[in-house]
Amino acid sequence: MIFGLNGLVFASWSARLPSVAEVFGLSPGGLGLLLLMTGLGSVLGLPLAGSLVERLGTAGTVRACAAVLGAMMAIISVSLLNGWLFPCGAALFFFGFAVGVWDVSQNIEGAEVERHGTKTIMPKFHAAFSAGAFVGAMIGGLLAHLGIPLWLHLLGMIVLGAMVVIIATRNFLPAHADPGADDAPARSRWLAWREPRTIAIGLVVLAAALTEGSANDWVAKATVDGMGASNSGGAIMFAVFVASMTIFRYLGSALLDRFGRVATLRACLGSAIVGLGIFVFAPNAYLAAVGAVLWGAGAALGFPVGMSAGADDPRHAAARVSVVSTIGYAAFLAGPPLLGFLGDHVGIRHALLAVAAVCLVSFLSAPAVRPRERVTASR
After folding, report:
1. How many of the other CB atoms lie within 10 Å of CB of 227?
2. How far apart are CA 179 and CA 177, in angstroms?
3. Lower CB density within 10 Å: C or N end of the chain?
4. How confident is the model at residue 355 (pLDDT cuts 50, 70, 90)?
5. First vs last Cα of the chain: how many Å apart?
6. Beta carbons within 10 angstroms of residue 254's beta carbon
7. Cβ-based neighbour number of residue 100 at 10 Å
């Protein structure tokens, strides 16, 4: 429920961006600068997320982030109603901060639940996020079609989000559930930035984030500009990618349990590279759709596997997941403008080949996600 709500809230905003541009009279460049505030908030919040989780616990951190999100969505709603651009931008910064910290918290809790069980389940949590984002986008599109203003839409999300968070976080595992965690000597959370394995896991997540984020930003436009498809055709191509990623996230748990993290991750990275190649060089949209399916399958598991690997040791899970998430989110922040710059010179479709190059680096870093010795609840 928490993963799904996170995706639902974020997509509810993202799906209504044309309305935002219309309210404020923004050009694409101006809208991009406004959205940059969200990315900056997320990237600046992530290094602090581990410390917040250690102080408040995962349930407390999610509740705090939900409260901040509710307040910021209220400010955004009022800003949209009155045409206040700068208050909206400031609210988006803290909106991004809360979304990023929430993301770290839910991944730490998800890894802890997985650690106490016998099967891999983290990819299913991320499948819930993707499904929530899909539902959020569909709701946003429907409300836009019905002429429901964005400010009213966001206020409705505040009420729904508060109800879900209050109910779901009551069932989180108790803070410090692992008895060995309290016996560990205290250490600075910044030491995780000096661990080669943690940085290598971060590179894996960086590639996964870039592989997913580049599709979110550019699949539809590359389909329209590079293949001469209609806008609806571009939207369908994006839907194909999202559907593939969601399905393979749900199926990924069984694949990871059977073949292990490293082999499965390398297969995913290989699928992403092949899918990107097909999409870029396909002579028609039908073959490009095959590439989008393989691309989506390749983007499915890198993020959840990286989160699980970062949290293998519960004593230092908060600090390491914070580091891994920070490195990964850098791709969401830097990826779109870099690919856009390349697209200005070689076309956005061919610019996507840069993502395949990053996947090769991640392929070499894949052994870092090999599980450490599992710590079970009976320890």
Report:
1. 18
2. 6
3. C
4. confident
5. 29
6. 14
7. 27
196-227 and 302-310 helices cross at what angle (nearest 10)? 170
Can you list the positions of beta strands (E) in the chain?
A: none
Query: What count of residues does the chain have?
Result: 379
Are the beta carbons of 34 and 18 closer than 8 angstroms? no
d(CA 312, CA 23): 46
Tens of pLDDT, residue by residue over 160-190, are: 888 999 999 998 987 654 444 445 455 556 7
Q: What is the DSSP string of 53-74?
A: HHHHHHHHHHHHHHHHHHHHHH
Rounded to a whole number, what is the largest CA-CA distance in the chain?
A: 62
Measured CA angle at 56 (ends 175, 74), to 5 deg: 130
Pick from 251, 252, 216, 212: nearest CA to 237: 216
Give long-range contacts, CB 8 A cutoff, 24+ apart: 65-70: 65/98, 65/99, 65/101, 65/102, 65/105, 66/98, 66/102, 66/161, 66/162, 66/165, 68/94, 68/95, 68/97, 68/98, 69/9, 69/95, 69/98, 69/99, 69/102, 69/161, 70/158, 70/161, 70/162
pLDDT reading at 316 higher than 60: yes
Phi, psi of 374 (to 5 degrees): -70, 140
Give me the domains of the chain, ranges plus CATH numbers: 1-174 (1.20.1250.20), 189-372 (1.20.1250.20)
| DSSP-H helix ranges across 83-195 | 85-116, 122-146, 150-168
Is the four-CA dihedral 334, 267, 131, 19 of positive or negative sign? positive
Cβ 233 vs Cβ 224: under 8 Å: yes
pLDDT tens-digit series, residues 68-107: 988 998 898 888 888 899 999 999 999 889 988 998 899 8
33 token code pair = 């600068």
Assessment of whether the complete model's pTM goes beyond 0.85: no
The tokens for 223 are 């389909």
Give tens-digit pLDDT for 244-301: 888 998 888 888 989 999 999 999 989 999 999 999 898 888 899 999 999 999 988 8
Q: What is the DSSP letter of 173?
A: P
| Residue showing tokens 């599980």 | 371
